[in-house]
Amino acid sequence: MTRRGFLASAAAVNLLARQSWIALDLLHGSRNVHWPGAENPVNMGSLLKPFLVLAYGATHTHFPVTHCNGSKDGCWFSHGHGDQDIINGLANSCNAYFLSLANEIDRAALDSVCLSYGLSAPDRNATNRKLIGLDLGWPQSPLVAVDAFARLIQNRRVPPVDVVLAGMERCAASGTARAIGLACYAKTGTAPCIHTPHAPGDGFVIAIYPRIQPRNITLLEEHGTTGAEAARGLLRKID
Fold this sequence. Notes:
Oligomer: single chain
Structural class: alpha+beta
CATH class: Alpha Beta
Number of domains: 1
Strand content: 15-25%
Radius of gyration: 17 Å
């Protein structure tokens, strides 16, 4: 093996060591789990924002348009996203949009969504920042999260799930998950690192594919990066 080949091989092994994933076959119900401690709750950052949309939609007939000014509005994108509707807010994982949305979410409605989708409900004293995945976030076990997204796709024709999926479609096409390079429904998340050695953050990405007739779901975590960067590695996990 050449030195270049050896270094490429070593880099691939190192990448695998930094990744954990779960792949669910929706047709047969089988799953491949390559995620130590997948039953334990973990903060997945913005990955659960779609379920906040469901909770908001349960008590509102229309979704707002919010102007994102960037860092001063608490958004990860320092320059700001500008005017965001629900589709773009979800596709861009705009924190300013979701902080505003979370402020209007009825906690009983959110508890009901959690019950319907098998998620652990957040504490009643959880801040809006935690609800959208910032700080300590709204932890869920990776296994539970995958099952929740499976139920989401099963309900794809029921409002406001159709709105959520429109946002996830755009997320994959031109938003934070565009690096997947696949026609799918997707969502990313970035959370504080919980690994040793410690890194600035951990990236999460989930994809439901193919988009026209979904048959599979893959959830990937990559240590030491963002959700948008983790999306680059997800395609390698898809058969």
